[in-house]
Design goal:
Number of strands: 2
Number of helices: 11
Shape: flat
Order of helices and strands: HHHHHEEHHHHHH
Radius of gyration: 24 Å
Helix content: 55-70%
Strand content: under 5%
Distance between the termini: 47 Å
CATH class of the largest domain: Mainly Alpha
């Protein structure tokens, strides 16, 4: 993600801001939004129902989108022009063309829709574990929702750290590697990753600390889910010290 945000393409500042918004938004607000999304009749189940019903259409559309985008970019590169694969203008053209072709395929009856039953998954008020095939490593479904929430709110901060690290790598190292005939993956493996090792150590440390300190999400989502399915270390310490309406167990 940081590598993509480090590219010099049009509109990149907007995408950087959009990706970083979850990290600067109140965790309580984000948690309430996620609770609304993971309700039994919430956005997640609605999107899964649409995906089940329109899965073939979506798959064909995405295939056409990627194919047209690559065709446009490769054609421009063969003409000697410098074009990024994520050039916004070509993405818009690809979306329009892919939409038209997909619509024509549906209009001619090549793509047909089937009636499917609405997805009715309990995300919060359940003790069911996922993934079911993981055995002892399976985790409760409400805890999975909290994991998604935590990833969504922390990844943007880590992206900023990696972005700063990428921009701090001297360009002379890449130029010297190109002179020696290094390819893209070789530059990534022998220059980029070693230069980011200190940033990686910092991110791993901050991630562990943040995971151990996670409390507010569990406190809020715990009201909608079985508490034992979402409990974390910080909440366990709090619940042991202040057990409900009982007297504190400290002091």
């Amino acid at each position: 993600l940081a590598v993509a945000m480090n590219q010099k393409i049009k509109g990149i500042r907007f995408f950087r801001t959009a990706y970083y918004m979850p990290s600067v938004t109140s965790s309580i607000v984000i948690t309430l939004i996620f609770m609304w999304m993971f309700q039994r009749k919430g956005v997640i189940n609605y999107l899964l129902t649409l995906l089940r019903q329109h899965g073939l259409t979506i798959g064909i559309f995405l295939t056409l989108l990627v194919g047209i985008q690559l065709l446009l970019v490769v054609t421009e590169k063969l003409r000697g022009r410098t074009v990024e694969y994520l050039e916004p203008s070509y993405i818009i053209i690809s979306i329009i063309l892919a939409s038209i072709i997909t619509y024509l395929l549906k209009d001619f009856g090549i793509i047909t829709l089937t009636e499917v039953k609405a997805v009715d998954i309990l995300w919060l008020n359940t003790r069911e574990k996922v993934p079911f095939w993981a055995g002892p490593f399976a985790f409760p479904r409400p805890l999975g929702a909290i994991m998604i929430l935590n990833i969504w709110t922390t990844v943007p901060t880590f992206m900023i750290l990696y972005l700063a690290g990428l921009q701090g790598i001297p360009k002379v190292l890449y130029e010297a590697a190109e002179v020696d005939g290094a390819k893209g993956w070789q530059k990534l493996w022998y220059i980029t990753i070693p230069q980011l090792k200190h940033i990686t150590f910092l991110i791993v440390t901050l991630g562990l600390i943040g995971t151990l300190q996670m409390f507010d999400q569990v406190k809020i989502i715990g009201s909608q889910a079985p508490l034992e399915s979402v409990i974390t270390l910080a909440y366990y310490v709090y619940d042991s010290a202040f057990p409900g309406a009982s007297a504190p167990r400290i002091g």
